[in-house]
Specification:
CATH architecture of one domain: 3-Layer(aba) Sandwich
Number of helices: 10
Shape: globular
CATH topology of one domain: Rossmann fold
CATH class of one domain: Alpha Beta
Largest sheet: 5 strands, parallel
Strand order of the largest sheet: 2-3-1-4-8
Helix content: 40-55%
Number of strands: 8
Bound molecules: adenosine-5'-diphosphate, zinc ion
Radius of gyration: 17 Å
Length: 223
């Protein structure tokens, strides 16, 4: 099962990818997380992408395609995977199709999380995550169960993303509308697009996604 989660920044891709990974036990590949790890470790790649990310722009297609492809060929992904944050341009989508076809594979569903811009800004404004395990939270919509303690690992250290400040969010939304939104007709034409109402609460969105993938025989067989 190969799933793509598509949607603007703050739509809930990471949140739903975490839930799907836990539920179906397939790998989750988040290109934003991969890039942030490179930046944190000050690797040559991290140095190359740091300023681009801080400005709210997309990193070059070749850079991100190389990073992602290094992951999809690992044994962890043999049973399938969930893509969170990739593809973000038509070039990336085409490269993915070619790479999968070479292995006799293909995307099963592209889940489009639809959320309006005002709600995205509210979501991104309150976003934080566990510094140790990466679990995602929101000040209002998904607080930790016990104040200051991660539900998943009990850590008391949390982080807020540098690019989640208002000026950068506007640029990221602009990049989404100009560079990523053309993927919607691209996947629509291939019969893969499954729009889901991302404005609903987290569990209701998860239920809608499960309805889409739950009817898929391949996943049922593998899980
Ligand atoms: P969000 O979850 O808010 O949509 P991500 O964590 O997926 O954001 O991505 C953070 C940043 O990493 C993006 O603004 C962009 O700079 C870079 N990035 C992540 N994935 C890609 C991609 N597929 N193509 C280009 N840039 C990417
Ligand atoms: P993305 O990966 O698409 O950028 P996230 O999954 O990080 O989005 O979600 C952005 C913020 O909104 C996080 O703080 C998350 O806890 C919260 N969130 C995600 N989905 C919902 C939802 N359906 N309703 C309310 N808040 C949500
Ligand atoms: Zn944690």
């Amino acid at each position: 099962m190969i799933l793509v989660l598509l949607g603007p920044p703050g739509a809930g891709k990471g949140t739903q990818a975490q839930l799907l990974q836990a539920k179906f036990g397939i790998a989750k590949l988040s290109t934003g997380d991969m890039l942030r790890e490179e930046v944190t470790s000050c690797s040559p790649l991290g140095k190359e992408v740091k300023d681009i990310m801080a400005k709210g722009q997309l990193v070059p297609d070749k850079t991100i395609i190389d990073i992602l492809f290094a992951h999809i060929h690992t044994p962890d992904c043999a049973r399938g995977f969930i893509l969170d944050g990739f593809p973000r341009t038509v070039k990336q989508a085409e490269a993915l199709d070619v790479a999968l076809a070479a292995e006799g594979k293909a995307i099963d569903h592209v889940i489009e999380l639809t959320v309006d811009d005002a709600k995205l800004i509210e979501r991104i404004g309150g976003r934080f995550s566990c510094a140790k395990c990466g679990a995602g939270y929101h000040d209002t919509f998904k607080p930790t169960k016990h104040a200051g303690k991660c539900d998943a690992c009990d850590s008391t250290q949390f982080i807020r993303r540098e690019d989640d400040k208002a000026e950068t969010v506007a640029k990221r939304l602009d990049a989404y509308h100009k560079q990523t939104a053309p993927l919607l007709p691209y996947y629509q034409q291939k019969g893969l697009l499954r729009p889901v109402d991302g404005m609903a609460d987290i569990q209701a969105v998860a239920a809608q996604i499960e309805k889409v993938v739950g009817t898929d025989k391949k996943l049922a067989k593998n899980s």
